Amino acid sequence: MTASVSLADLTAWLGAFRDLVTENRDYLTELDSAIGDADHGANMARGMGAVLDKLGQAEPAVTVDELFKGVGMTLVSSVGGASGPLYGTFFLRFGVAAGAVSELDGPALSSALAAGLGGVIARGKAEAGDKTMLDALAPALEAFDDALADGLPAAAAAAASAAAAGRDATLDLVARKGRASYLGERSAGHLDPGATSTAYLFEALAGVVA
Amino acid sequence: MKKLINSPDAVLADSLIGVAAAHPELRVDHSNRIIYRGEGTKTGKVALISGGGSGHEPLHGGFVGFGMLDAAISGEVFTSPTPDQIQEATKVADAGAGVLHIVKNYTGDVMNFDMAAELAGADTGVTVETVVTNDDVAVTDSTWTAGRRGVGVTVLLEKIAGAAAEEGRDLAAVAAIARSVNENGRSMGMALTSCTVPAAGKPTFDLPDNEMEIGVGIHGEPGRRRVALAPASDIAGMLVDPILADLDFTSGPTIVMLNGMGGSPLIELYLMYGEVARLLEAAGVTVGRSLVGNYITSLDMAGCSLTLLRADDEVLSLWDAPVNTAGLRWGM
């Protein structure tokens, strides 16, 4: 059973996330068309595409913090919108918390994810139930920690299920942050695009550490 | 989708090539997607910078030039520019007197300008002041939303604060007049159709022929409510009433902008202005200056927005000061 994730695993995670947002680019844009401004799919696909292109060109990172600082800065500088600073800050804080190591065990991965979550909250100032990516991210981390005693694959799988459930629960919520909040009550009845892309992030993680 | 484009991914880059070709008086940094005045910022003058997603033209690039902006930063269509683009423009446009960032209140714009100001302060030592516009009365300003959107007042602010900077006022004074313009301005918008984001390829939302959206922003997003299509005289009331209910405009002269969303012809915009002017007169509002046309648009959306700004003699004289940009030009 996997006891830790290596740099290669983490890079594979990023690649799997890129693949998911690219495959679902039109779907994410469709969700964003309903309550936002129809750019989430294009932005995430462009941003994660740039991340993987850059990883392919540069010398491989030797530490987790180096890897994720590069990922965060690439997202911040290639995406724009709200998702650039939010995902960028998530990966930047993830890297800083992980530190100059070459692999992460369960507790270390948990701390890095929690630091990423803290960054998203600081940047976006959203709270649970505001119909944002936080509604998938926060339950994912909670489930990850709860299942960690059963091993990393179980924790990652639990996080993926919780993120998906959190995403589904945004359907009925009224948005209180971001562009969807301008719709007021009319934002209910649609999945949140940011929570949907965050669910892909954990689906990708579960696939890699299975 | 029928558009005058080569490919959806190249719309912004190709359009900036056209801007550079049409306006030799401007300098376009194609790699950073920044439009500057050709001659740069005059030494000792406060630099005014704005930016945001593309698709709102002439805002912001069309307002770069004498009397208005020193630089405009373009993001992808409806997507805020990134912190490194904003930081670059800040560094280049600064002429020693500091830089005013003019930011429309949208989550992405505010976050990216925040990150840029953090980076610029630490990195370059340029003094930055920020004014965030939030004039849209369609949005309830409460802790339950991202706050009111920044829309039409941004155009008026760039003109008035630009004139103040041109007079040689310092950064604190230019920022103060900019904030005052924002506080005294209110807007309300409506849409007859959605718009088509090139990368999405189809209209952002469906709107039947017999309905319209009231309370829209400038990103093709649906409005606060959908109602049956009505005559222009009724639509004028739907724009004027919520603005007058939010702020008293009877105490002095008002600057009025009737703005097109990009897909409505001028003949309709003037017709709407006539209806608005009639309602304003009946409500005791004195129109000091007026502006009708496409100034802050939402791609090919049909519809319009109304912006009212409470003015005084100082603001009117800054409004009348010479301006020479692609999108606004008088007194030269």
Report on the architecture of this protein.
- The complex is a heterodimer of chains A (210) and B (332).
- Chain A has 210 residues and is mainly alpha-helical.
- Chain A has one domain: Alpha Horseshoe (Serine Threonine Protein Phosphatase 5, Tetratricopeptide repeat).
- Helices cover 69% and strands 3% of the residues of chain A.
- Chain A is built from 9 helices and 2 strands.
- In chain A, strands 1-2 form a two-stranded antiparallel sheet.
- In chain A, helix 5 (83-98) packs antiparallel against helix 6.
- The radius of gyration of chain A is 16 Å and the shape is globular.
- Chain B is α/β, with parallel strands linked by helices.
- Chain B folds into 2 domains: 13-184, Rossmann fold (3-Layer(aba) Sandwich), CATH 3.40.50.10440; 185-310, Dihydroxyacetone kinase, domain 2 (Hypothetical Protein Tm841, Chain: A,domain 3), CATH 3.30.1180.20.
- In chain B, 32% of the residues lie in helices and 24% in strands.
- Chain B has 8 helices and 15 strands.
- Chain B has helices spanning 11-22, 83-93, 107-123, 153-166, 171-183, 232-246, 266-282, 313-320, and strands at 26-29, 34-37, 47-54, 65-66, 71-77, 99-104, 128-133, 185-191, 211-214, 225-228, 253-260, 286-293, 303-310, 323-325, 329-330.
- In chain B, the strands form 3 sheets. A 6-stranded mixed beta sheet of chain B has the order 1-2-5-3-6-7, sandwiched between helices. Chain B has a 6-stranded mixed beta sheet with strand order 10-9-8-13-11-12. Chain B has a 3-stranded antiparallel beta sheet with strand order 4-14-15, with helices on one face.
- The longest helix of chain B has 17 residues, at 107-123.
- Chain B is globular.
- Chain B starts with 10 loop residues before the first helix and ends with a strand.
- Chain A binds chain B through residues 29, 33-39, 42-43, 76-86, 123-124, 176-179, 181-184, 186, and chain B through 53, 75-84, 106-108, 111-112, 114-115, 138-140, 143-146, 149, 197, 199-200, 204-205, 217, 219-222, 224-225.
